[in-house]
Amino acid sequence: THKKLRISEAFSSQLGANVTVQGWVRSARAQKVNVFLHVNDGSSLQSLQVVAGAELNDPLLTFGSAVEVSGILQESPHEKQPLELQADSIRVIGECDPVDFPFKVKKRHGLEYIRQFPHLRCRTNAFSSLLRIRSEATSAIHSYFKDNGFVQIHTPIITSNDCEGAGELFQVEPAGADEHFFSVPAFLTVSGQLHLEATAGAFSKVYTFGPTFRAENSQSRRHLAEFYMVEAEISFTQSMEDLTKVMEDMFRSATEHVLARCVEDVDLFHRHVTPGHRETVDSMLKKSFPVITYTEAVDILTRSSEQFAFPSDWGCDLKTEHEKYLVKHCGNVPVFVTDYPYDLKPFYARDNQDGPRHTAAAVDLLVPGVGELCGGSLREERLSVLRARLEQLGLEDAYSWYLDLRRFGSAPHGGFGLGFERYLQCLLGVDNIKDVIPFPRFSRSCLL
Ligand code: 4AD
Ligand code: MG
């Protein structure tokens, strides 16, 4: 008559309850009279302390082994935990050789070390906290959009378009095929934006949150070949502010949600893994995010150009070093940069029709530690302007469907994409993007 519970449930159960828990041993200590175990099942950072008579000791109760324990919940003499489990049976379900197991008891292994074991690293406190935070942040983002009237669209993973026009595509064909499966070349999507634009033309406010793929050769700390993107598209926009407001609100709402619901897990990071980062997070939430134009950004950078490896002349794309500098310059808070050179932006970005420094109504959100977190724009909704640009690029046939969106009830609209892994880096102060995704894919690495 033992009730099977998750360990997080056991912590809020009545003293005296008969329960069974299952999990993995995080520490085992045998004394003359008693055996002490810490058992963790991933439901929370906290492990459950198990106390048993020496007769229940088993040499197979080692760090990492899988166990099932039944007993009575009783008050714990330790302040830190409210209760412990007095065991009347302990069963080793799966052994674990402590010599071969790459993690050692009570040792805080660094993120870089545990990265070598993508199949095992979720058994560490740091990485299991991270994945619980990632899960909660995912829910937080879905809640934000649901609460604000957005319709979720499952945009396709396989597509024939290259939304960003950067040619960083992975082609999709059946293994060994000698003709195109879909009649045309097909690719893993780099962005769901164009499909979101099609649906924004019916639902007004839409979003998608799914994997996107880029064949980037970069070995950087903020690029992956497979990453998750949150994308939103809003119809009937009147200005860039309609976009930056959603970007900022979503960032705040998700961050506040995670800080409130993952207190222990976030604390582990902010205290032990990336100490000092909590201050940065708190200061990010204090004031509204500053907005500067690209031209103002270039002026700021030019005044310190000797600090940079790359030029920061008007017309050049901002490099990571420039983005990080701008964030620092603005007080180490997220900052919007708007109105980029027209020629730097993809065909869909709205022409500001200014000059001689010709710009598009595009916006990036730059954040501490990471640089670019979001990229977005108002979209070119004017049929003749869009058609002229697509003709110039030789793309008018490929995008005739996209022009249709401007022929049939076109409305001013805009949207953005947020790199979800970069968001987690920013929230937790994690330096390397490979440490915020369960199974990272990047060039020359597709383990598991
Ligand atoms: O700036 P990007 O390329 O914008 C788009 O794809 C737009 N179509 C989105 C839209 O408007 N709907 O990508 C958006 C964000 C970047 O700001 C960055 O945070 C992230 O996606 N990102 C990456 N994250 C990890 N690895 C990569 N290789 C990434 N490339 C972009
Ligand atoms: Mg971008």
Q: Brief description of this entry?
A:
The chain folds into two domains: 105 residues, Nucleic acid-binding proteins (OB fold (Dihydrolipoamide Acetyltransferase, E2P)); 315 residues, BirA Bifunctional Protein, domain 2. 29% of the residues lie in helices and 24% in strands.
Architecture overview:
The structure is a single chain. This protein is α+β, with helices and mostly antiparallel strands. The chain has two domains: 3-107, Nucleic acid-binding proteins (OB fold (Dihydrolipoamide Acetyltransferase, E2P)); 121-435, Bira Bifunctional Protein, Domain 2 (BirA Bifunctional Protein, domain 2). It contains twelve helices and 16 strands. The protein has helices spanning 7-11, 111-114, 125-147, 193-203, 240-261, 263-273, 277-286, 294-302, 320-329, 383-392, 400-407, 420-428; strands at residues 3-4, 18-30, 34-40, 48-53, 66-75, 83-94, 151-152, 158-159, 187-188, 205-213, 226-235, 291-293, 335-341, 359-367, 371-378, 413-419. The strands form three sheets. The protein has an eight-stranded mixed β-sheet. The protein has a five-stranded mixed barrel with strand order 2-3-4-6-5. Strand 1, helix 1 (7-11) and strand 2 (18-30) form a beta-alpha-beta unit. The radius of gyration is 26 Å and the shape is elongated. The protein starts with a strand and ends in a 20-residue tail after the last helix. The model has no long low-confidence stretch (mean pLDDT 96). Magnesium ion binds at residues 372, 375. 4-amino-1,4-dioxobutan-2-aminium adenosine-5'-monophosphate binds at residues 163-164, 191, 193, 214, 216, 223-224, 227, 229, 231, 372-376, 415-417, 419, 421-422.
